[in-house]
Amino acid sequence: MDDQQYMQIALDEAKKAEVLGEVPIGAVIVYQDEVIASAFNLREKLQTTGSHAELLAIDKANEVIGSWRLEECTLYVTLEPCPMCAGAILQARIPRVVYGAKDEKAGCAGTLFNLLQDDRFNHQVEVIPGVLGEEAGELLTNFFKKLRLKKKKIKTDMDENG
């Protein structure tokens, strides 16, 4: 399989999050051409800060590999990692990250900061941006559009019903 095929699996994970009302972000971790972990955002359901798709996938991959080091793995994620997730990627020693959409508000793989390639850290990551980025971005845009409409309808209903 290639980067686009693995990213498609991450997009499928993101769609699972959307069904649950979660921000649709999905992640998969590949080791020796095999998906060993997959996850999607569960922050609303679990009400924990660390319930991002990347962190959940890293935890699963650690279990499969039997180590905190994921040195021969690639992480595929539908949205550019935030600072928290970028830190976890560095700590897990993941050598390669492929992401879909840029995150203009929190992206730390090149958009706002580039924590993953900062040579002041003892580990740097190869970053491949924009793989199926249009699809990933569209999924997020549509999710937030629907969320805003829903909130607007609730507000309108409340205003009308006093």
TrEMBL record:
Q: Where is the CMP/dCMP-type deaminase domain?
A: 1-119
Q: What is this protein called?
A: tRNA-specific adenosine deaminase
Name the protein family: Belongs to the cytidine and deoxycytidylate deaminase family. ADAT2 subfamily.
- Please state the gene responsible for encoding this protein: tadA
What is the species of this protein?
Gracilibacillus xinjiangensis
- Cofactor(s) for this UniProt protein: Zn(2+)
Task: Please provide, alphabetically and separated by semicolons, the GO molecular function terms listed in this UniProt record.
Answer: tRNA-specific adenosine-34 deaminase activity
The chemistry this enzyme catalyses reads: adenosine(34) in tRNA + H2O + H(+) = inosine(34) in tRNA + NH4(+)
- List keywords of the entry alphabetically: Hydrolase, Metal-binding, tRNA processing, Zinc
Q: Which PANTHER family match?
A: CYTOSINE DEAMINASE FAMILY MEMBER, TRNA-SPECIFIC ADENOSINE DEAMINASE
